[in-house]
Design brief:
Number of domains of chain B: 1
CATH architecture of chain B: Alpha-Beta Barrel
Structural class of chain A: alpha/beta
CATH architecture of the largest domain in chain A: 2-Layer Sandwich
Oligomer: heterodimer
Order of helices and strands of chain B: EHHEHEHEHEEEHHH
CATH class of the largest domain in chain A: Alpha Beta
CATH topology of the largest domain in chain A: Aconitase, domain 3
Strand order of the largest sheet of chain A: 5-4-3-6-7
Strand content of chain B: 5-15%
Number of domains of chain A: 2
Radius of gyration of chain B: 19 Å
Number of helices of chain A: 16
Largest sheet of chain A: 5 strands, parallel
Largest sheet of chain B: 7 strands, mixed
CATH class of chain B: Alpha Beta
Strand order of the largest sheet of chain B: 4-3-2-1-5-6-7
Strand content of chain A: 15-25%
Number of strands of chain A: 19
Distance between the termini of chain B: 36 Å
């Protein structure tokens, strides 16, 4: 009998082609997802006289540079941005790589499209030239972001050299309180272990609270693994995963489904398997979270106050905190629920799926925004589904803008920017200095918390609005 | 890729933790091609005012740190996005070594692909180096990749760890694609067996 192994160990060992004496392993890559930031990687490939080795395992969609105001190339006003999407079209056409293009309803944020199409499956190794590739780990896959050089390596060889990271398990047991959602769970985890707590590790999220999340909730949790420093995060596949996958366009069918299911059922971490690091959280103690600083680890329950640097003994940490508060224009001791915001963004690979939009719409229904707010669905299919359910009407009636799918204001590369000095409650994943635009101030929140902020014009405990019904 | 063997150069101390890749290279510049040059964009919004004049007080605008080839940072340097442009910007500016308590995992890997050497040293030593560099601006740090040693301005020598393969690649100035392609038969054999078992993938 084999020694007890973790989910991560099992996937890793099933993909090892060969090892180098220094311990690095050449891994087989099942899926390579490509977006419109891949121009330099395709160019490198060409310069080396190489071609895409496995176009059948490579899938592309433009997301970072697309306009959220239209679905044509000409809707991208800026020639440099348009060029990135055109480049992707050219490179994928030349390489015979499947592309969900702008005119295709399946286009969207690559980390929404993968699971939605059933491309991301348990047991796979999935890579993409984007740090939020960890998202796909929610399907029970090992998924991680790579840089441009590694993208071209995967294009050329369908493999990647990696040193095996360590195993870490974050267990969240218990029941989440009403109004507390997946985004709050991952922000609470990052606040606890810090923005580098997972560095060098792959995190497996486990425990009854994680098990109780839908696949979409798990996607949100795994998405922000990189904000905890971990290149990958994963959740063991279970019936929730299988039900989600069944019938998806690229999921196995018929006899293949049965064979796949038999294999997938062997993937969860064995009893007795050991982790290099274990962290435990009590689900019942997690409250709706907001960030107050310029690192995702600067997260706190909405019921808290802006922390006071004076309470920090370490001079270096105090200095860092003071700089963050100066950038965010916040005063120590101020209740987080009194921070007025100028704008709300609901979208990004973290929170732009149908359940996110349903939850936000529920808060918004019958209310009105007091500040500019926009919803950017994660894919054309999410948008169509939301429209079929009438969610677009709820958002629009409430004063939200209803846009086309893309990364949009999470990173602002398409021109959807937060103005200098503006404060944005955002469902995205990074509150870095200037992330949503030069001088922009970001507060990371869940979709329901974002909806609440849009209605009240300040960071708000969504549970208060829920109580009013 | 240029080989990296040995460097004796001015080092600059950067006093912030969690310096993310959005600080190193803002997202709005990422549409540019690799060969268009990235030196002038490094730390752009920290380094320049809105009117493009250098910001007073920023490390690289403070002589002699502008000519540094070694950066001594803090913890979790270059966390965040996978953008390799962060490495290109540091490299094109002239940096060849970054010393820190820890790095973002993706940046760490990207660095080796471009001839930039990331070195992890113990937290106390990283802090001591920064103190020494601030006290004596323009002081040199000496990095010897062959011996895996860093000599600080105080003469103290630290050993650092590096993967032997990555070390070889840096010393020779080669990347790993060539090596991988020399193993194509092994890859194809793996794929054949794999696909027999998992035909649906």
């Amino acid at each position: 009998m084999n020694a007890p192994a973790t989910l991560f160990d099992k996937i890793w060992s099933a993909h090892g082609i060969l090892s180098r004496p220094d311990g690095a392993t050449l891994l087989h890559i099942d899926r390579h997802l490509v977006h419109d930031g891949a121009s330099n990687a395709f160019r490198t490939l060409k310069e080396k006289g190489l071609t895409v080795r496995r176009p059948d395992r490579t899938f592309a969609t433009p997301d970072h540079y697309v306009s959220t105001l239209g679905r044509t190339l000409s809707s991208i006003n800026d020639p440099n941005r348009r060029g990135m999407v055109e480049d992707l079209e050219t490179h994928t056409r030349e390489s015979k790589v499947k592309m969900f293009g702008l005119s295709d309803k399946r286009q969207g944020i690559v980390h929404v499209v993968g699971p939605e199409q059933g491309l991301s499956q348990p047991g796979m190794i999935i890579v993409c030239g984007d740090s939020h590739t960890a998202t796909h780990g929610a399907m029970g896959a090992l998924a991680f972001g790579v840089g441009a050089s590694e993208v071209s390596h995967v294009l050329a060889t369908q493999t990647l050299w990696q040193r095996k990271p360590k195993n870490m398990r974050v267990t969240v047991d218990g029941t989440l309180a009403p109004g507390v959602v997946a985004k709050d769970v991952i922000l609470a985890i990052i606040a606890k272990i810090s923005a580098m707590g997972g560095t060098g590790h792959v995190i497996e999220y486990a425990g009854s609270a994680i098990r109780g999340l839908s696949v979409e909730g798990r996607l949100t949790v795994c998405n922000m693994s990189i904000e905890a420093g971990a290149r990958a995060g994963m959740v063991a596949p279970d019936d929730t995963t299988f039900e989600y996958l069944h019938g998806k366009p690229y999921a196995p069918k018929g006899a293949d489904w049965d064979k796949a299911l038999a294999l997938w059922s062997t993937l969860p971490t064995d009893d007795g398997a050991t982790f290099d690091r274990e962290v435990h959280l009590d689900a019942a103690e997690i409250a709706p979270m907001v960030t107050w600083g310029t690192s995702p680890e600067a997260a706190a329950p909405i019921t808290d106050r802006v922390p006071d640097p004076k309470d920090t003994a370490d001079a270096f940490r105090r200095d860092t905190m003071e700089r963050a508060l100066a950038y965010m224009d916040l005063k120590p001791g101020m209740p987080l629920s009194e921070i007025a915001v100028d704008r709300v963004f609901i979208g990004s690979c973290t929170n732009s799926r149908i359940e996110d939009l349903r939850a936000a719409a529920k808060v918004v229904k019958g209310r009105h925004t007091t500040i500019p707010a926009m919803v950017v669905p994660g894919s054309g299919l999410v948008k169509a589904q939301a429209e079929a359910e009438g969610l677009d009407a709820i958002f629009k009636t409430a004063g939200f803008e209803w846009r086309e799918a893309g990364c949009s204001m999470c990173v602002g590369m398409n021109g959807d920017l937060v103005a200098p000095g503006e404060r944005c409650a955002s469902t995205s994943n990074r509150n870095f200095v200037g992330r949503q635009g030069k001088g922009a101030r970001t507060h990371l929140v869940s979709p329901t918390m974002a909806a609440a902020a849009a209605v009240t014009g300040k960071l708000t405990d969504v549970r208060q609005l829920m109580a009013k019904g | 890729m240029e080989p990296f063997k040995h460097l004796d150069a001015v080092a600059a101390p950067m006093e912030a933790p969690n310096v993310d890749t959005d600080q190193i290279i803002p997202a709005r510049f990422l549409y540019r091609k690799r060969n268009e040059g990235w030196a002038h964009l490094l730390f752009h919004d920290l380094r320049f005012n809105d009117d493009k004049t250098p910001k007073d007080g920023f490390l690289l605008n403070t002589p002699p740190f502008g000519e540094a080839k070694i950066l001594v940072a803090d913890r979790n340097f270059a966390c965040g996005s996978s953008r390799e442009h962060a490495v290109w910007s540091l490299y094109d500016y002239g940096f060849r070594v970054v010393i820190a308590k820890s790095f973002g995992d993706i940046f760490f890997g990207n660095s080796f692909q471009n001839g930039l050497l990331p070195i992890v040293l113990p937290p106390e030593r990283v802090e001591a180096l920064r103190v020494a560099l601030a006290k004596e601006p323009g002081a040199h740090i000496v990095v010897d990749l062959e011996k895996q040693e860093v000599r600080g301005p105080d003469g103290k020598v630290d050993h650092f760890e590096i993967d032997p393969f990555r070390k070889e690649c840096l010393l020779a100035g080669t990347d790993d694609v060539t090596f991988t392609l020399s193993n194509l038969d092994r890859i194809a054999a793996f794929e054949k067996a794999y696909e027999q078992k998992l035909g649906w993938v």
